[in-house]
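Troubleshooting: if your tokenizer reports a length mismatch, compare against these two reference records.
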Amino acid sequence: MPPGLCLYVGDDERDIIAGRAAGMRTVAANYGYLGVHADTQAWGADAIIDSPLELLQWLPKA
């Protein structure tokens, strides 16, 4: 599958950087192993989700 059709979901800024470098759309998970001072807004992801279920809106309908 081409990278442009993939989503890279991560809970750290380095995940968003890696996803962009791979040519993927990125989603910042506003939960998980976030540090106390993590600012997901500043990471530049295409989207931010607050729960795993919110990821469903970013996946194609079957």
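Reference record two:
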Amino acid sequence: MTIESVMTLARMAVETSMAVAAPILMAGLVAGLGISVFQAVTQINEMTLTFIPKIIAVGLVIAVFYKFMMNHMLDFTVRMFTTFPAMIR
């Protein structure tokens, strides 16, 4: 296993994790920003107000992008198992 194969493997893993996590993180960011603006405008300083909209937004994004995320992770796993024998030589 060469340095190049390890770096390729690490790059593929990071790209896959970023592609899978990006929609979820962006939904949480947008929901949090929206609730923060709402709290600033209405001067409601309730800390628990942000959790429910974020949970709902993240749940909806997971439901919508589930197929994309699973296909992306499955492609990565298949690539790992098909290229692994060549990497260990």
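Descriptive notes for reference record two:
- DSSP finds two helices and no strands in the chain.
- The chain has a mean pLDDT of 91.
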